[in-house]
Design the sequence.
């Protein structure tokens, strides 16, 4: 990074050689959950650590991210589960540029990283099917729609995925929905996405 870089101190703690910052969790409103059949499965914080370079010196970056997961088991099995994930990670600016690694990945890499953070089976090759624009937290957000194959409990399943990202209240917020191709959960995915609240209390 360029010399003279300054780390934005908004919500960010500088502890010696460490830069530490925490995100706030996101959730779907109770009203938006109604009628979808989805229930909150978990809301948990996760630590992420990486070494970055500032002013030609290495600093340890320590982030507290949040995962909120909603699930629907139409067939009462893991293989038939549909899921809706919200992943938040704090924004960090260095010399006017984002220093959060999650803000620098391509969309497909982001999907894989969010799936990894959620401990879900990794998707294989992606084929983009289209895009849907939704109103999320007052912004118009394009939701990319992908077709892929996902390994779940040792079985390959054709899956449709929905992915969107936005910045809100000092955090980056990633939305990732997934359901088996044989099920049509698209309207529920849109309803859940448009009902996101952030920040919320853990």
Sequence:
């Amino acid at each position: 990074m360029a010399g003279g870089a300054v780390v934005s101190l908004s919500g960010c703690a500088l502890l010696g050689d460490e830069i530490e910052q925490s995100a706030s969790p996101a959730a779907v409103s109770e009203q938006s959950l109604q009628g979808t059949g989805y229930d909150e499965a978990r809301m948990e914080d996760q630590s992420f650590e990486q070494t970055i370079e500032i002013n030609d010196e290495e600093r340890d970056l320590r982030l507290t991210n949040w995962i909120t997961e909603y699930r629907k088991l139409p067939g009462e099995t893991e293989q038939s589960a549909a899921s809706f994930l919200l992943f938040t990670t704090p924004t960090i600016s260095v010399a006017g540029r984002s220093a959060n690694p999650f803000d620098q990945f391509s969309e497909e890499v982001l999907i894989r990283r969010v799936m990894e953070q959620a401990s879900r089976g990794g998707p294989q090759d992606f084929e983009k099917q289209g895009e849907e624009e939704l109103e999320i937290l007052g912004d118009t957000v394009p939701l990319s729609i992908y077709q892929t194959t996902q390994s779940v409990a040792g079985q390959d399943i054709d899956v449709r995925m929905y992915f969107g990202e936005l910045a809100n209240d000092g955090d980056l917020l990633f939305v990732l929905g997934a359901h088996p191709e044989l099920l049509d959960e698209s309207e529920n995915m849109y309803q859940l996405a448009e009902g996101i609240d952030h920040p919320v209390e853990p």
Notes: The mean pLDDT is 85. The two ends are 35 Å apart (CA to CA). The longest strand covers residues 39-54.
